[in-house]
Amino acid sequence: MKNSRTSNYDMATDSNVVLKKKETVGETLQTHDDQEEYSFRLSSTTEACSANHDRPPPPSSSSSPHNSAVWEEQPASSTQTWDPPSSPLSKSPWSSHVAPESSYAYTGLMGSLVREEGHIYSLAASGDLLYTGSDSKNIRVWKNQKEFSGFKSNSGLVKAIIIAGERIFTGHQDGKIRVWKISGKDPSVHKRIGTLPTFTAKIKSSFNPTKYVEVKKNQNAIWIKHVDAISSLSLSEDKSLLYSASWDKTIKVWRISDSKCLESISAHDDAVNSVIAGFDGLVFTGSADGTIKVWRRELQGKGTKHFFSQTLLKQECAVTALALDPYATVLYGGSSDGLVNFWERAKFLSHGGVLRGHKLAVLCLATSGNLVLSGSADTNICVWRREEEEHSCLSVLSGHTGPVKCLAVEEDHKGTDVRGGDRQYTAYSGSLDKSVKIWRVSAHPWEPTPVPDAPPQPQHQAESQNQPQRIPSVQSFSSSIGRGKASQRRK
C-alpha cells in the first residue's frame, strides 16, 4: 500500500516539484507569499516521476527553488502592472486579439484573451458563452470572444467550473462550492444563490456529534464539508446530482434540487484530482495515489449509495485528469508521467491502450465528437482522433508559454465543410501563462497538396513526409500536424 503524504515534505528533492505542506483541519486555506498553490496534488510516492511540472510561473528572484523550471516567464520589463478593480464589471484587464474567420478549414490559432490578473485554472464553455476562472476573485464571462459579463467570488483560485442549465457551480481553494444563477431578465447578470454546504446544514451538523468524522489523527470535522481544496466537479447523467472531488481524499455527492449533501466517500489514500460521472450509474475518480477507481451508484429510498467496483489503474505517478467521450464509450485518464491511458466500455472497461504525445505531465483532457484533446505542462495541446479502435494524433497546438491547465472544446456547427464530411471544432485552452487561447480544430488530418507529375523521390525523402508537418498559424503561433498513429494497443 502506498504511503500517504506527510507534513515533512515541504518541497520535493527532485524534478523541481514543490509539495504543498498539509494544513491542519479547520484552518483557513491561504495562499502563502513564498509558495503558490498548485493545480493538482502530487503524492510523496510520485516524486520520482520526471513530468510533475504543474505549477505557476517561477518568481524572478535568483534564490528561488523554481529557477530551473521547464519554461520561462517573460521579463518583468515587458509586462505592465495592473491594479485589479473591486468589481468584475469594471473594465476587464483582458485584451481580445481574435483573428478574422477564414473561409477554409484549418487547424490553428484563432486568437488570444490575455489578462494580467492571474493564472488560468478553470474554464467551461456553453454555446457561445465561455466562463474563465483564475486565482483572482473574478469569474469572467465571454461571448463571441468579447467580454460579456463577470461576477465576483469571496474566494480566489477558482479551480473548477461546471454549467448546469441556468446554474453555474464553481469549486474553490477554500473547499467550498458556490452556486450562481443567470438572471431571467438580463442574461449578463449572475447572482450567487448559495454555497455548498449550506450555512443551515453546517449549523445543524455542528451540534450533532454523529455528524463528525475523523479527518486527521485526533482531529474531527463535519462530514458534509470539504476540508481541503476542491479539485474537480461533475454532473450525473440526469443532471440531478453534483459530484465534488477534493484534496481531502474524498468525493461528495450533492442533490442539486435542495443543495443537500447525500454522501461522502473516502475514495483514495491521497488527494483526489479528478471525478467524472459516467454511464450506467458509474463514477470514476483519479488520485495522486496513482489509481483510477470505479464506483457504482445505487438508489436507496430518496437517497443514493455508492459502492466500490474496481480499480482500473494502479501506478506510481499521480493521475491528474479524467474525461469521457461524448458517446460514453471510452474513458481517458491523464497522468503526471505524460501518458493518457484509455478504457473501452464495449469491452467491459478493459484497457484499450496508451496515447503518447507529451514530454511532461498531462494536466487536462477534453472531448467532443471523436476528438480528444490533452493539455500538458510541456505547454502543448495534442489533438487525437478516434476511429474504431485506433487513435491518431492529428495535430499538436503550440502557442502557450506556460503549462496548459484547462481545456474545453465544442463542435462548430457553422464551420465550413470544404472536404465533404469534415467537422470543425472550437477549442479553448487556459494556461498558467495568464492567457486563454482560442483554436480552430479540424477533424480531418492535414495532407500536403500533391504536386502533379512529381518525379520519384529518394527513399529517405519519402520517409520524411510521414513525420509531423508544421504549418503557420495566425499571430506567429503554429500547429504541428502529424498523420502517424500515436496509440499503443495493449498486447
Automatic annotation (TrEMBL):
WD repeats lie at residues 223-264, 265-295, 312-344, 355-384. It holds the Pfam family WD40. Gene3D superfamilies: YVTN repeat-like/Quinoprotein amine dehydrogenase (2.130.10.10). Residues 447-458 have a biased composition (Pro residues). Keywords: Repeat, WD repeat. InterPro entries: JINGUBANG-like, WD40/YVTN_repeat-like_dom_sf, WD40_PAC1, WD40_repeat_dom_sf, WD40_rpt. Signal peptide: none annotated. Residues 1-97, 445-491 are annotated as: Disordered. This is Protein JINGUBANG. The lineage of its organism: Eukaryota, Viridiplantae, Streptophyta, Embryophyta, Tracheophyta.
